[in-house]
TrEMBL record:
The lineage of its organism: Bacteria, Bacillati, Bacillota, Bacilli, Bacillales. The keyword Metal-binding does not apply. CDD domains: ABC_Iron-Siderophores_B12_Hemin (cd03214). SMART domains: AAA. Keywords: ATP-binding, Cell membrane, Ion transport, Iron, Iron transport, Membrane, Nucleotide-binding, Transport. It is a peripheral membrane protein. It comes from Neobacillus paridis. It is found in: Cell membrane. This is ABC transporter ATP-binding protein. PROSITE patterns: ABC_TRANSPORTER_2. It comes from the Bacteria. GO terms for molecular function: ATP binding. Residues 4-240 form the ABC transporter domain.
Amino acid sequence: MVRLYTKGLHIGYGERLIVKNLNVEIPDRKITTIIGANGSGKSTLLKAITRIVPQQSGTVVLDGKDILKENTKILAQKMAILPQTPESASGLTVGELVSYGRFPYQKGLGRLTKKDIEVIDWALEVTGTSDFKYRSVDSLSGGQRQRGWIAMALAQETEIIFLDEPTTYLDMAHQLEVLELLQKLNIEQERTIVMVLHDLNQAARFADYMIALKDGQIVKAGDCEEVMTHDVLRKVFQIDAHIGRDPRTNKPMCITYNLLKGDNQNEKMAIPLSSIGAYR
């Protein structure tokens, strides 16, 4: 089932076109990961789908409606986005931060209702941040802070959650903590999760569906077996990858690779695996 898709999407900044004639479908109740080199249009695509940046042409359709014609609060009840660098929450407690997720449901003076408080407490509990409710966001570790932001997105009670590089700046343990939380939300609550990830092996490990972008266009979209291949990674990243199997999940993973360079891409230079995302 597909509730969300784009048709002929063109997105740009000024005269520079970032995403070109993009037609993409987001599978419902699945985890979709988007991969691609820097500047390939990954973040721009997320921002356009969630109406943060306008498209130059084309359409984003959710539940049969053009999102540009949808009421802002109604749209915010369907989709939540956690950007790569969330706005500063300086001075806020975790509980106050999470309460911002209730904005789409507030009326009048915007006071929290009993239902709002129940949802906030639920979001804190699900993300394991209840103990931090009255603590300053500034006092938390990177992983704890990221879980707080995810709790805010959950408090928005949307069925679709977008995350732009949710593991950036986190150590290996906290990266895994955040990704396992998102996987749990998908499995237990059937949330549709769409996230941009730089770590290819994490992207494959946690995804049901992958989208590989290059220069604002889709090189390949499908399950992990279709996208995590030697040919696709060569086209997207200009690397000569050796693909193996994750011993825990049996999903494809990049074991090692060489960088291809030169006009004919015949020259190769070894690159440490850690720079593209080692197995977690």
